[in-house]
Amino acid sequence: MDSIRVLVIEDSPGDARMVGHVLGSARGVVFEIRYARDLGSGLELLKRESVDVVLLDLQLPDAWELDGVRRLNTAYPDLPIVALTGLDMPQTIRDTIKIGVRDYFVKGRIDSEALIAAILRQTARAHRIARAGTPAGGTKRDQEQRIQVLVVEDNPGDYALVRHMLAPRKGFRFDLVLATKLSDAIEKLRERFDVILLDLGLPDSKDIHTLQRLRAKEPYTPVLIITGIEDRDKAVEALANGAQDYLVKGHIDGRLLSRAILRHVKRAV
Question: Mean per-residue pLDDT for 245-256?
Protein backbone atom coordinates (compact mmCIF):
# COMPACT_ATOMS: atom_id res chain seq x y z
CA MET A 1 0.00 0.00 0.00
CA ASP A 2 1.28 3.45 -0.94
CA SER A 3 2.46 5.77 1.84
CA ILE A 4 2.57 9.59 1.77
CA ARG A 5 4.35 11.67 4.41
CA VAL A 6 2.35 14.75 5.39
CA LEU A 7 3.38 17.62 7.64
CA VAL A 8 0.39 19.48 9.13
CA ILE A 9 1.38 22.93 10.44
CA GLU A 10 -1.65 23.96 12.48
CA ASP A 11 -1.93 25.71 15.85
CA SER A 12 -5.52 24.63 16.58
CA PRO A 13 -5.65 21.13 18.14
CA GLY A 14 -9.25 20.72 16.97
CA ASP A 15 -8.41 21.57 13.37
CA ALA A 16 -5.34 19.31 13.48
CA ARG A 17 -7.52 16.42 14.69
CA MET A 18 -10.02 17.15 11.92
CA VAL A 19 -7.31 16.91 9.27
CA GLY A 20 -6.01 13.69 10.81
CA HIS A 21 -9.51 12.22 10.75
CA VAL A 22 -9.99 13.18 7.08
CA LEU A 23 -6.69 11.63 6.02
CA GLY A 24 -7.31 8.57 8.12
CA SER A 25 -10.43 7.84 6.09
CA ALA A 26 -8.52 7.45 2.81
CA ARG A 27 -8.62 4.12 1.04
CA GLY A 28 -5.67 2.61 -0.80
CA VAL A 29 -3.10 4.97 0.68
CA VAL A 30 -1.59 5.49 4.13
CA PHE A 31 -0.83 9.02 5.29
CA GLU A 32 2.08 9.27 7.72
CA ILE A 33 1.24 12.51 9.52
CA ARG A 34 3.58 14.79 11.46
CA TYR A 35 2.27 17.82 13.32
CA ALA A 36 3.76 21.22 14.16
CA ARG A 37 1.95 24.00 16.03
CA ASP A 38 3.79 26.91 14.40
CA LEU A 39 5.94 27.58 11.36
CA GLY A 40 9.20 27.69 13.31
CA SER A 41 8.77 24.19 14.71
CA GLY A 42 7.59 22.98 11.29
CA LEU A 43 10.77 24.27 9.66
CA GLU A 44 12.85 22.60 12.41
CA LEU A 45 11.07 19.29 11.79
CA LEU A 46 11.81 19.55 8.07
CA LYS A 47 15.52 19.74 8.85
CA ARG A 48 15.29 16.29 10.47
CA GLU A 49 12.67 14.55 8.34
CA SER A 50 11.59 14.58 4.73
CA VAL A 51 7.91 14.86 3.82
CA ASP A 52 5.97 14.74 0.55
CA VAL A 53 3.55 17.62 1.16
CA VAL A 54 2.77 20.31 3.73
CA LEU A 55 -0.73 21.31 4.86
CA LEU A 56 -0.17 24.88 6.05
CA ASP A 57 -2.54 26.92 8.20
CA LEU A 58 -2.39 30.54 7.02
CA GLN A 59 -3.11 32.00 10.47
CA LEU A 60 -0.21 30.87 12.67
CA PRO A 61 1.16 32.63 15.77
CA ASP A 62 4.53 33.23 14.08
CA ALA A 63 3.45 33.51 10.43
CA TRP A 64 0.36 35.23 9.07
CA GLU A 65 -1.03 34.49 5.59
CA LEU A 66 1.55 35.23 2.86
CA ASP A 67 4.46 35.37 5.29
CA GLY A 68 4.17 31.68 6.15
CA VAL A 69 3.93 30.64 2.51
CA ARG A 70 6.92 32.78 1.52
CA ARG A 71 9.13 31.47 4.31
CA LEU A 72 8.25 27.85 3.68
CA ASN A 73 8.58 28.19 -0.09
CA THR A 74 11.94 29.95 0.25
CA ALA A 75 13.35 27.24 2.48
CA TYR A 76 11.87 24.33 0.50
CA PRO A 77 10.94 25.56 -3.01
CA ASP A 78 10.15 22.07 -4.37
CA LEU A 79 7.89 21.03 -1.49
CA PRO A 80 4.17 21.12 -2.42
CA ILE A 81 2.03 23.34 -0.16
CA VAL A 82 -1.70 22.96 0.40
CA ALA A 83 -3.12 25.95 2.27
CA LEU A 84 -5.73 25.70 5.05
CA THR A 85 -7.52 28.77 6.35
CA GLY A 86 -10.59 29.83 8.27
CA LEU A 87 -11.02 32.90 6.04
CA ASP A 88 -12.78 32.63 2.69
CA MET A 89 -11.09 35.57 0.97
CA PRO A 90 -10.69 35.41 -2.84
CA GLN A 91 -7.84 37.92 -2.84
CA THR A 92 -5.91 35.83 -0.31
CA ILE A 93 -6.48 32.77 -2.49
CA ARG A 94 -5.06 34.56 -5.54
CA ASP A 95 -2.11 36.00 -3.61
CA THR A 96 -1.06 32.70 -2.04
CA ILE A 97 -1.30 30.85 -5.35
CA LYS A 98 0.86 33.48 -7.01
CA ILE A 99 3.68 32.75 -4.54
CA GLY A 100 3.60 28.97 -4.52
CA VAL A 101 0.38 27.45 -3.15
CA ARG A 102 -1.38 25.12 -5.59
CA ASP A 103 -4.43 24.06 -3.55
CA TYR A 104 -6.45 26.03 -0.99
CA PHE A 105 -9.13 24.85 1.46
CA VAL A 106 -11.39 26.77 3.83
CA LYS A 107 -11.80 25.08 7.20
CA GLY A 108 -15.35 24.09 7.94
CA ARG A 109 -15.97 23.43 4.25
CA ILE A 110 -13.30 20.84 3.62
CA ASP A 111 -14.54 17.96 1.51
CA SER A 112 -12.67 14.79 2.48
CA GLU A 113 -12.37 13.46 -1.06
CA ALA A 114 -11.26 16.84 -2.41
CA LEU A 115 -8.50 17.22 0.19
CA ILE A 116 -7.21 13.70 -0.39
CA ALA A 117 -7.33 14.25 -4.16
CA ALA A 118 -5.37 17.50 -3.78
CA ILE A 119 -2.63 15.75 -1.82
CA LEU A 120 -2.44 12.90 -4.31
CA ARG A 121 -2.34 15.40 -7.16
CA GLN A 122 0.46 17.41 -5.60
CA THR A 123 2.53 14.35 -4.80
CA ALA A 124 1.71 12.70 -8.15
CA ARG A 125 0.88 9.42 -6.42
CA ALA A 126 -2.35 8.87 -8.31
CA HIS A 127 -0.69 8.11 -11.64
CA ARG A 128 2.86 6.86 -12.17
CA ILE A 129 4.98 6.80 -15.29
CA ALA A 130 5.93 3.15 -15.80
CA ARG A 131 9.66 2.77 -16.15
CA ALA A 132 10.62 0.42 -18.94
CA GLY A 133 11.99 -2.79 -17.49
CA THR A 134 14.49 -3.29 -20.28
CA PRO A 135 15.95 -6.77 -20.62
CA ALA A 136 19.48 -7.27 -21.88
CA GLY A 137 19.56 -6.55 -25.60
CA GLY A 138 16.33 -4.54 -25.46
CA THR A 139 15.62 -2.04 -28.20
CA LYS A 140 15.99 1.72 -27.92
CA ARG A 141 12.19 1.99 -28.03
CA ASP A 142 11.99 -0.31 -24.99
CA GLN A 143 14.29 2.01 -23.03
CA GLU A 144 12.17 5.14 -23.54
CA GLN A 145 9.77 6.46 -20.94
CA ARG A 146 6.35 6.54 -22.55
CA ILE A 147 4.21 9.47 -21.41
CA GLN A 148 0.51 9.25 -22.22
CA VAL A 149 -0.90 12.71 -23.06
CA LEU A 150 -4.55 13.59 -23.59
CA VAL A 151 -4.75 16.77 -25.69
CA VAL A 152 -8.15 18.49 -25.43
CA GLU A 153 -8.08 20.94 -28.34
CA ASP A 154 -10.57 21.75 -31.14
CA ASN A 155 -8.19 23.73 -33.37
CA PRO A 156 -6.41 21.38 -35.83
CA GLY A 157 -3.55 23.83 -36.32
CA ASP A 158 -2.89 24.14 -32.59
CA TYR A 159 -2.99 20.36 -32.19
CA ALA A 160 -0.52 19.93 -35.06
CA LEU A 161 1.78 22.42 -33.34
CA VAL A 162 1.58 20.50 -30.05
CA ARG A 163 2.43 17.28 -31.90
CA HIS A 164 5.44 19.00 -33.44
CA MET A 165 6.61 20.41 -30.11
CA LEU A 166 6.29 17.02 -28.39
CA ALA A 167 8.30 15.08 -30.95
CA PRO A 168 10.28 12.18 -29.40
CA ARG A 169 13.41 13.25 -27.57
CA LYS A 170 16.20 11.41 -25.82
CA GLY A 171 14.74 9.11 -23.18
CA PHE A 172 11.11 10.19 -23.66
CA ARG A 173 8.27 9.56 -26.07
CA PHE A 174 4.99 11.44 -25.80
CA ASP A 175 2.00 9.37 -26.95
CA LEU A 176 -0.77 11.85 -27.83
CA VAL A 177 -4.51 11.20 -27.92
CA LEU A 178 -6.78 13.98 -29.23
CA ALA A 179 -10.21 15.01 -27.96
CA THR A 180 -11.88 17.93 -29.75
CA LYS A 181 -14.69 18.40 -27.22
CA LEU A 182 -14.91 18.15 -23.45
CA SER A 183 -17.46 15.36 -23.72
CA ASP A 184 -15.00 13.40 -25.89
CA ALA A 185 -12.24 13.99 -23.34
CA ILE A 186 -14.37 12.72 -20.47
CA GLU A 187 -15.20 9.61 -22.52
CA LYS A 188 -11.51 8.98 -23.23
CA LEU A 189 -10.65 9.23 -19.52
CA ARG A 190 -11.62 5.58 -19.28
CA GLU A 191 -8.01 5.11 -20.40
CA ARG A 192 -5.06 6.09 -18.20
CA PHE A 193 -3.16 9.28 -19.00
CA ASP A 194 -0.12 10.78 -17.31
CA VAL A 195 -1.08 14.38 -18.11
CA ILE A 196 -3.86 16.37 -19.78
CA LEU A 197 -3.28 19.42 -21.99
CA LEU A 198 -6.52 21.41 -21.88
CA ASP A 199 -7.78 24.29 -24.00
CA LEU A 200 -10.44 26.24 -22.09
CA GLY A 201 -12.41 27.27 -25.20
CA LEU A 202 -14.13 24.18 -26.60
CA PRO A 203 -17.31 23.73 -28.67
CA ASP A 204 -19.21 22.29 -25.70
CA SER A 205 -17.58 24.16 -22.79
CA LYS A 206 -16.00 27.55 -22.15
CA ASP A 207 -13.57 29.18 -19.72
CA ILE A 208 -13.02 27.95 -16.16
CA HIS A 209 -16.13 25.75 -16.27
CA THR A 210 -14.22 23.50 -18.68
CA LEU A 211 -11.55 22.85 -16.05
CA GLN A 212 -14.09 22.45 -13.26
CA ARG A 213 -16.09 19.88 -15.22
CA LEU A 214 -12.93 17.96 -16.11
CA ARG A 215 -11.68 18.01 -12.53
CA ALA A 216 -15.04 16.70 -11.31
CA LYS A 217 -14.51 13.62 -13.48
CA GLU A 218 -10.74 13.27 -13.03
CA PRO A 219 -9.34 14.84 -9.85
CA TYR A 220 -5.87 13.27 -9.95
CA THR A 221 -4.20 13.53 -13.36
CA PRO A 222 -2.08 16.71 -13.78
CA VAL A 223 -3.80 19.29 -16.01
CA LEU A 224 -1.85 21.91 -17.95
CA ILE A 225 -3.94 24.71 -19.44
CA ILE A 226 -2.90 25.73 -22.97
CA THR A 227 -4.80 28.81 -24.07
CA GLY A 228 -4.60 31.72 -26.44
CA ILE A 229 -5.58 34.18 -23.70
CA GLU A 230 -2.79 35.83 -21.71
CA ASP A 231 -4.67 36.76 -18.54
CA ARG A 232 -2.96 36.70 -15.15
CA ASP A 233 -6.23 36.63 -13.20
CA LYS A 234 -7.53 33.76 -15.29
CA ALA A 235 -4.26 31.90 -14.75
CA VAL A 236 -4.59 32.32 -10.99
CA GLU A 237 -8.22 31.18 -11.15
CA ALA A 238 -7.20 28.09 -13.12
CA LEU A 239 -4.52 27.17 -10.57
CA ALA A 240 -7.04 27.68 -7.76
CA ASN A 241 -9.39 25.24 -9.51
CA GLY A 242 -6.90 22.39 -9.80
CA ALA A 243 -4.70 23.14 -12.84
CA GLN A 244 -0.98 22.54 -12.44
CA ASP A 245 0.21 25.08 -15.04
CA TYR A 246 -1.08 27.81 -17.38
CA LEU A 247 0.68 28.15 -20.73
CA VAL A 248 -0.14 30.69 -23.45
CA LYS A 249 -0.16 29.64 -27.11
CA GLY A 250 2.43 31.55 -29.08
CA HIS A 251 4.60 31.96 -25.97
CA ILE A 252 5.73 28.35 -25.65
CA ASP A 253 8.09 26.14 -27.62
CA GLY A 254 8.82 22.42 -27.53
CA ARG A 255 11.44 22.73 -24.81
CA LEU A 256 9.17 24.73 -22.49
CA LEU A 257 6.15 22.49 -23.06
CA SER A 258 8.02 19.22 -22.58
CA ARG A 259 9.72 20.54 -19.44
CA ALA A 260 6.37 21.66 -18.05
CA ILE A 261 4.95 18.17 -18.60
CA LEU A 262 7.96 16.39 -17.15
CA ARG A 263 8.01 18.69 -14.12
CA HIS A 264 4.55 17.50 -13.14
CA VAL A 265 4.70 13.83 -14.08
CA LYS A 266 8.26 13.03 -13.02
CA ARG A 267 7.40 13.55 -9.33
CA ALA A 268 5.98 10.05 -9.49
CA VAL A 269 9.09 8.46 -10.98
Answer: 86
